[in-house]
Fold this sequence. Notes:
The protein is of the alpha+beta class. The protein has helices at 2-26, 31-36, 119-147, 153-178, and strands at residues 58-64, 66-88, 94-99, 106-107, 112-116, 181-183, 188-190, 200-201, 208-223, 235-240, 247-255, 265-273, 284-301, 306-308, 311-318, 321-333, 336-341, 348-352, 363-365. Helix 3 (119-147) packs antiparallel against helix 4 (153-178). Residues 41-49 have low confidence and may be disordered.
Amino acid sequence: MRHTLRIVALLVLVALGGGAYWYFVKQGGTLNTLLAGKVPSPGGASSGTPPAGGPPPTPVEALPVKIGTVSRQVTAVGSLLSSESVVIRPEVAGKVSEIAFQEGQAVKKGAVLIRLDDSIARATLAQAQASIAFSRAELSRAEELYRQRTGPARNREQALAKLQSDEAAVQLARAQLEKLTLTAPFDGVLGLRKVSVGDVVAAGKDIVNLEAIDTLKLDFRVPELYLPTVRTGQTLKVAVDSFGGRTFDGTVYAIDPLVDVNGRAVVIRARVPNSDGSLRPGLFARVALTLDQNPNAVLVPEQAVSAFGNKQFVFKVVDGKAVQTTVTLGERRNAEVEITAGLQPGDVVVTAGQLKIRDGAPVVVVNNKPAGS
């Protein structure tokens, strides 16, 4: 008898539990409706609006999508180079008689930098000039005799050849004299000199380096994968360790037609303005090259995006309901992600509370308000 009563009591408890599960979970019933004797209609929990006395809307945080500019970039490392760079070297041997510059000085094109001893060259020029004066007189005398038919044409031709030879000797002496004065070939900043007054220098000896740094060159490499997307005119940002937190703008102006076979990389050269002289040639540079820009990109906070398998989705708020929407992601930047498909300008997406809602669930937007509002 007692065994039978226990079985009956167990069956009654199972029936009550099943009824409670059906009422509260499946039909969305509440204790108030139960006490009032009302039973929710089948399917009420999944209908467009919650039934009277059903669960209240779930509070969530939501924001409208943002429209902004998104840039697709590739990062690389490179080196800064002088726009123009040369080491001043003499073409002829000689003794340094004058140094006409200060180390680190900015100079203009044509400014005198070094003078070598020119005493022998000047004497050679004077000798050639004296010889040419005599040759002119000889030619004049020979032409006069030739006109009077008292002198042979051979003498006239010899005098003319001697004059031309002396004129060439004068030009040679002047050229040798000019080579003893070294000038700046372009505007730039001088480096550290390697000679002193009185040094006897050989032809080709390093004197001082000259660098044009108002605009710098930047050489860097990107993988060959980006070859179809790189082109001249693209902009880039340059960062160097010497100026942490500061970036410099640059523009691509040349792409090497030869792909490096060792690293399978494309060599790119850009110009970086340096009017204040902050940057110096030889610095290690971190480059962010902008490949393309989308000025009307749809952006949402990263926390608004959820993943299910290999798909990404967000919850839109439409007429007080949560609508699960599959989206395609683009670039990420500053805790925001670009949505390339699935959302339109004006859509409102849930940014917090996604775990408490499902597709079609009623929601109410309760965003955190600033203090004092």
